[in-house]
Write a structure and sequence with these properties.
By secondary structure, the protein is mainly β. Helices cover 13% and strands 39% of the residues. It is built from 1 helix and 9 strands. The chain is elongated, with a radius of gyration of 27 Å. This is Fibronectin type-III domain-containing protein.
Length: 135
């Protein structure tokens, strides 16, 4: 009887040690504007005894998406606007890490998609065999 009680206590201790331990906070969290309408977020892998199922990405207080990769691209944003992000890991038992420190980035002022005008009236004068002067 004592042997069965010992095994039961050992099994309970093992289950307690394996479950409900939240993943570590995602590391090296950074956000960077990549255009007037896009911000990229990246982070490093969290650790968890039961593995990490996915990461939750938040903008401000709003949930954006969940992802299994270590990056996220937020698109369709307003130019010249600051956006703040947070990320957290969700483990195999739905245990959740704390948020990584919130990071912010400002989108670029505008997307200049128009090509510059073609120069006209250029005159080339030879200066030497390997140089010219454009005016």
């Amino acid at each position: 009887m004592k042997y069965i009680l010992f095994i039961a206590i050992a099994l309970l201790a093992l289950v307690a040690a394996c479950g409900d331990t939240p993943p570590t906070v995602p590391g090296n969290f950074t956000v960077n504007a990549v255009s007037a309408s896009d911000i990229s977020a990246t982070w490093s892998k969290s650790a968890n005894h039961g593995g990490v199922s996915y990461y939750e990405v938040w903008r401000g207080n709003s949930f954006l998406d969940k992802t299994k990769i270590l990056s996220y691209m937020d698109s369709g944003l307003i130019n010249s606007t600051t956006y703040c992000y947070a990320v957290r890991a969700v483990g195999g038992s739905d245990d959740i890490s704390d948020f990584a420190e919130t990071k912010c980035a400002k989108t670029f002022p505008y997307d200049d998609v128009s090509p510059p005008t073609v120069p006209t009236g250029l005159v080339a004068n030879a200066i030497s065999q390997t140089e010219i002067d454009l005016t």
